[in-house]
Amino acid sequence: MEFQLYWLLLLPLFFGLGWLAARMDLRQLLSESRALPTAYFKGLNFLLNEQPDQAIEAFSEVARSHQQTTELHFTLGSLFRRRGELDRATRMHQMLLDRSDLGTDQRLAAIHELAQDFLKAGLLDRAENLFKELKGTEFDASAAVFLREIYVSEKEWGKAIEVAQQQSASQSSDALARETAHYHCELAALVYAEGRTAEADQHIHEALKANRYCVRASILRGDWRFKEGMFKDAIKEWSQIEQQNADYLFLIAPSLFKAYQELGQADAGLQVLQGWLKSYPSHDLLTHVYQATLDDQGAEKALTLARQEFHNSPNMPALGKYLEAQLDVLRSSNGSPLKEGEPLSTHEDQSDLELTGKLIQTQVQKHALFVCHHCGFKARQFYWHCPACGHWESYPPRRLIDSEESVSSPVRM
User: Fold this and answer.
1) Does the pLDDT of residue 161 top 70, yes or no?
2) Would residue 235 count as lying in a domain?
3) Contact, 266 vs 257, CB < 8 A?
């Protein structure tokens, strides 16, 4: 294809069209900026200067005088809800829904926002109805999450399972599988308490089907077998936890030892616990294994165990248990019963040992906390469901004291 000289005449034309388009865009931008009220820019300035109260007032002024500013209404409603001003948030989103000129997408967004207002205000029935309206829309996934939150707060485990199953049909995730398993566990515990053991077992089966690593399901079924006197079956159920997640073994250590005792095999049970402690050391497991050794083999054997653990893992919990074991030996050698807090002897060495043990125990107790990795809520007992933020399995099955930094850094209560 040969170059034609007249093509050069087109270049100035293209440059001229580009300049004209730029001028038109600039005029439109200036026109739109002049149309925006001063309060709008004041609101933006307040937001940039981290003054949310003044920003809300400025934006509210714009919203009152310019009803067509839909996005601004959405922004204000979200700000009100975040600040806890639920009445104002509800009015803002309800006002949007009452508008006849609202498009379908915007109407769905308004329903979604209003449902969240009701949820945060505790109006669960209204929130549930609105979230149900969003099924099959672009807000379907988000609405399902909120619906499960409602059903969990109301302990409607069957409905929570139904919503979770609908979600898993379109999207699968490990978090959803874990939560579904816990819903089945909650329902299993309820029906078992009512004597419907077959139905309870079926829910445990469904829990493990949803999440084969569900430790809670194995714990529950083991507990039931123990109550029914089926000690070998109980041990079998609990032993599965080592393959599921060995960090949870401390939850069933005392019960497992009792099961072995009922079978007349306390030595075998103690051997299992000591093997777990060697492979998966933790503060709680050490406490349970020490107590089992003390009960079954006496203070001297318990002291040997505590000394060995302290040398293997020289940390605060092991030191505290080692001192406690020495005190238990002193009590037993003096012929006094092994009761906590009972005076030992007037001997100065024994008194010093007891005082040191108490100081160590106080320090250990300060850090013997479970911490939710989602919200940071601290608790002395283990929870499957965080009482603060409502997340499932957000508590790692190890206390702060099992971490090396927890001993040297202060813990905020």
Assistant:
1) yes
2) no
3) yes
Beta carbons of 315 and 356 less than 8 angstroms apart: no
- DSSP assignments along 111-176, one per residue: HHHHHHHHHHHT-HHHHHHHHHHTTTSTTHHHHHHHHHHHHHHTT-HHHHHHHHHHHHHH---HHH
Work out the average pLDDT over 129-141.
Answer: 93
Between the ranges 50-59, 81-90, 100-109, 298-307, where is the mean pLDDT highest?
Answer: 298-307
pTM for the structure as a whole: 0.75
For β-strands 378-379 and 370-371, DSSP reports them as antiparallel
The pLDDT of residue 97 is 84
**Confidence grade of residue 28 (pLDDT, cut at 50, 70, 90):** very low
Tokens at 343, concatenated: 């005076």
Distance, in Å, from the CA atom of 62 to the CA atom of 338, rounded to the nearest integer, reads 75
Distances in Å between the Cα of 285 and the Cα atoms of 37, 214, 319 are: 66, 20, 15
- Check pLDDT > 50 for residue 405: no
How many separate domains does the chain show?
1
Residue type for position 206: E
Q: Has residue 384 been placed in a domain?
A: yes
Q: For residue 378, give the H/E element and its range.
A: strand 378-379
Helices (H) and strands (E) in the chain, counts: 21, 2
Which one, of 285, 269, 348, 293, lies nearest residue 317 by Cα? 285
- Residue 396 belongs to what domain range? 368-413
Asked if residue 207 lies in contact with residue 244, where contact means CB atoms within 8 angstroms, the answer is: no
How much is the pLDDT for 85?
85
Is 333 contained in some domain? no
Sort 237 into a burial class: Cβ within 10 Å, 0-12 / 13-18 / 19+. Answer: buried
Q: Which two tokens stand for residue 297?
A: 């083999």
Q: Which helix (H) or strand (E) holds 215?
A: helix 215-227
Q: Is 65 contained in some domain?
A: no
Query: What is the DSSP annotation of 235-279?
Result: HHHHHTHHHHHGGGGGGTHHHHHHHHHHTT-HHHHHHHHHHHHHH
| Alpha helix ranges (H) inside 246-387 | 253-262, 266-279, 283-297, 299-312, 316-333, 348-367
